[in-house]
Write a sequence for this structure.
């Protein structure tokens, strides 16, 4: 519990420990990411308003694309690269472990998103005709 002036934890100290996610939008998905302890933590969300996606696209086709593009881009598989679907948020979570040494890490991560978006574009276009 925050104790403030008496010592102990202050609310300002707590805010410093909250990760600051960078948020981006692509036609195929919305995404936020943060680097923590040399690991890249990524949350993927369904595309923004006005873009309807089917459950097949989001839970199956996107999963396949994330697997293919993720392994190719990061040159890794389990246990260094782990992805999970979060039913409560209808989102994907990806953790790429041990990439803090990359010199231009923001560019490396956004290049991954660009590749994934390019990969998913045909699937998104095909499924949107069905919605």
């Amino acid at each position: 519990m925050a104790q403030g002036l008496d010592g102990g934890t202050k609310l300002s100290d707590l805010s410093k420990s909250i990760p600051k996610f960078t948020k981006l939008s692509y036609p195929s998905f919305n995404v936020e990411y943060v680097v923590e302890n040399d690991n890249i933590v990524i949350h993927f969300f369904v595309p923004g308003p006005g873009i309807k996606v089917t459950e097949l696209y989001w839970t199956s086709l996107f999963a396949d694309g994330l697997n293919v593009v993720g392994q190719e881009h990061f040159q890794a598989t389990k246990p260094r690269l782990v992805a999970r679907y979060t039913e409560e948020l209808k989102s994907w979570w990806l953790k790429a472990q041990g990439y803090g040494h990359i010199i231009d890490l923001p560019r490396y991560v956004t290049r991954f998103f660009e590749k994934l978006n390019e990969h998913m574009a045909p699937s998104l276009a095909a499924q949107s005709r069905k919605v």
